[in-house]
């Protein structure tokens, strides 16, 4: 299933090696801008190139210092995983390009939770996917329309998972299906259906492992520290527990994002 991903990774590596040198990057971008936007003057063009280079340097620092979340992370208590996923970066390598977002809203579900489809160990065609390995992907359609993404937690006998309810764009905005038109970045992916749609997560990922070496979608710790986390009851779950976690600001390098 992951065969096409290797080609994407190889292409990304070659491209980064070329752009890692400022002179090469500057020359290539200058020629590209001259061809596509001849109306832009020399000084403005140089300013744009310098700003793009600075952004790429920051991204390179993220790549060098980030840490991939391994299976041990997902085997922790589900509430702990749901909370600690805030600020983590989802990176999805698609045929069009790489998309990266910061998780800013999650919900926890367990087998002793009346709001969960795995309550009391109940196994159905849908809930059986929750009784798999921690770190597996569980996708299902809500109301037969919206594709919802969950990450399985703890051990296969538990039936636990975390729903990724919301994200904030970070990199690859040109591939996010019109997200650049959304003025409020917190509204672009403020629902589980929007998350899977913007990230272009297909149903074929259901049951696959997010920690598999060839998985095109992974979650990293890039050092974004959640600020002022809010804990509330979950959405559309009556008489519920405070198992929903939301955060709209993250601290990194003494700067607040977004």
TrEMBL record:
UniProt key word Signal: no
Any one GO biological process: base-excision repair
GO molecular-function term, one example from the UniProt record: DNA binding
Reactions catalysed: Hydrolysis of alkylated DNA, releasing 3-methyladenine, 3-methylguanine, 7-methylguanine and 7-methyladenine
SUPFAM superfamilies: FMT C-terminal domain-like (SSF50486), HMG-box (SSF47095)
Top-level taxon: Eukaryota
Gene3D superfamilies tied to this protein: Methylpurine-DNA glycosylase (MPG) (3.10.300.10)
Key words, A-Z: DNA damage, DNA repair, Hydrolase
EC number(s) recorded for this UniProt protein: 3.2.2.21
Enzyme class: hydrolase
Role description: Hydrolysis of the deoxyribose N-glycosidic bond to excise 3-methyladenine, and 7-methylguanine from the damaged DNA polymer formed by alkylation lesions.
UniProt family annotation: Belongs to the DNA glycosylase MPG family.
Protein name listed in UniProt: DNA-3-methyladenine glycosylase II
Lineage per the UniProt record: Eukaryota, Sar, Alveolata, Ciliophora, Postciliodesmatophora
């Amino acid at each position: 299933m992951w065969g096409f991903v290797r080609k994407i990774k190889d292409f990304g590596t070659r491209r980064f090696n070329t752009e890692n040198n400022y002179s090469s990057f500057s020359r290539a971008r200058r020629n590209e801008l001259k061809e596509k936007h001849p109306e832009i003057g020399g000084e403005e063009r140089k300013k744009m190139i310098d700003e793009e280079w600075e952004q790429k340097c920051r991204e390179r620092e993220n790549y060098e210092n980030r840490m991939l979340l391994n299976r041990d992370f997902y085997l922790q208590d589900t509430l702990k995983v749901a909370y600690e996923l805030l600020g983590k970066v989802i990176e999805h390598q698609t045929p069009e390009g790489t998309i990266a977002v910061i998780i800013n809203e999650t919900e926890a579900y367990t087998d002793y939770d009346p709001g969960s489809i795995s309550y009391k160990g109940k196994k159905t065609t849908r809930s059986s996917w929750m009784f798999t390995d921690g770190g597996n992907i569980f996708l299902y359609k809500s109301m037969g329309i919206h594709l919802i993404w969950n990450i399985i937690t703890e051990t296969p006998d538990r039936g636990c998972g975390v729903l990724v309810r919301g994200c904030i764009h970070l990199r690859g905005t040109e591939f996010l299906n019109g997200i650049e038109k959304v003025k409020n970045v917190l509204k672009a992916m403020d629902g589980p259906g929007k998350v899977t749609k913007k990230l272009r997560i297909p149903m074929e990922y259901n049951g696959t492992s997010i920690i598999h070496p060839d998985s095109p979608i992974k979650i990293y710790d890039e050092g974004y520290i959640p600020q002022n986390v809010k804990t509330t009851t979950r959405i559309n779950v009556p008489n519920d527990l405070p198992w929903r976690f939301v955060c709209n600001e993250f601290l990194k390098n003494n700067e607040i994002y977004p």
